[in-house]
Write a structure and sequence with these properties.
Blueprint (H helix, E strand, L loop, with lengths): L2 H32 L2 H9 L3 H32 L3 H15 L2 H12 L6 H6 L8 H25 L3 H9 L4 H29 L3 H7 L9 H9 L3 H35 L11
Helix pairs in contact: 1-12, 2-12, 3-7, 3-9, 4-7, 5-10, 7-9, 7-10, 8-9, 9-12, 11-12
């Protein structure tokens, strides 16, 4: 390719990239310029805001804890196993990404609903999941888990296998190697996955609406509160939306900063050297 052709290619690529950035940024800019200080004050004073924020923060925090506790060992197994079963499980983990959230909500009802596959058994135990706060958490776990597991598995795959082998050779147990060697090295990727999973959980709408309902103070999360406000007051819905953007952005920036700090500390540590036999 000639120098002129390379310049044209870069220019075309830059133009297309600028177009995409504009498409991503313009809605956020529109939110900011569409709301006034008075609109924000009205939104902050609305009685639906506080309960919706509390429900969103509580459910998303619990669902993220569940996803990280169960997804981290799963991601390590997916990253380290060469068995065909691991590839099948990895495919199943990714299914909620390509399935519409409304379908996830219907599927959860088909499993845990009163007439679902597990509904009668849960009823005999005195348990009812649909249209409760537990349904919100379950829906968030299902839709957000793939983002964490995928990011965590990629982070584990980036670790040099020789590092694990050396740790085992020096006498570290598998669990000690995982906790003291693997997790610190994969921490930036794990935090990125946690941020993506949290953002997906806190923004969940379709599966939550169908499986948990829209009960104010119980299952009404911020996206559902925005949906309810939009039916009567567009400016109030815009104010709620801007608050949700700010809340999510603050969490993601914090996680990114923690990830970069963890990466810096990890790379700053000198690699331990095995003692020679003649020492």
């Amino acid at each position: 390719m000639t120098r002129h052709g390379a310049s044209l290619t870069r220019a075309a690529g830059g133009s297309l990239g600028t177009l995409l950035i504009a498409l991503l940024a313009l809605p956020l800019v529109a939110l900011v310029v569409s709301v006034s200080a008075n609109d924000l004050a009205v939104a902050l004073a609305d009685p639906r805001l506080g309960p919706a924020v509390r429900v969103s923060l509580f459910t998303s925090t619990v669902s993220l804890a569940i996803v990280m506790a169960t997804g981290t060992p799963l991601a390590w197994w997916l990253a380290s196993s060469r068995h065909r079963l691991a590839r099948i499980c990895e495919l199943l983990v990714h299914v909620p990404i390509v399935v519409p959230p409304a379908v996830v909500g219907v599927a959860l009802l088909a499993v845990f609903g009163r007439d679902g596959a597990l509904g009668p058994a849960l009823a005999r135990l005195g348990l009812a999941l649909p249209f409760t706060v537990y349904a919100v958490i379950l829906a968030q776990v299902v839709v957000s888990a793939p983002f964490f597991v995928q990011a965590a598995a990629n982070a584990f795959r980036d670790i040099d296998p020789d590092t694990v082998v050396v740790a085992r050779t020096l006498g570290a147990s598998p669990s000690a190697t995982f906790v003291r060697i693997v997790l610190p090295m994969a921490r930036p990727g794990l935090l990125t996955g946690a941020g993506l999973a949290w953002a997906r959980a806190v923004g969940e709408f379709g599966a939550t609406l169908l499986f948990a309902g829209n009960r104010e103070g119980v299952t009404q999360t911020m996206p559902l509160a925005i949906f309810s406000a939009l039916e009567s007051d567009v400016q109030l819905a815009i104010g709620f939306s801007l608050m949700l953007v700010v809340m999510g952005g603050a969490v993601l920036v914090g996680l990114r900063s923690a990830g970069r700090l963890g990466a810096t500390k990890t790379h700053a540590k000198p690699r331990p050297r095995a003692k020679s036999s003649g020492a």
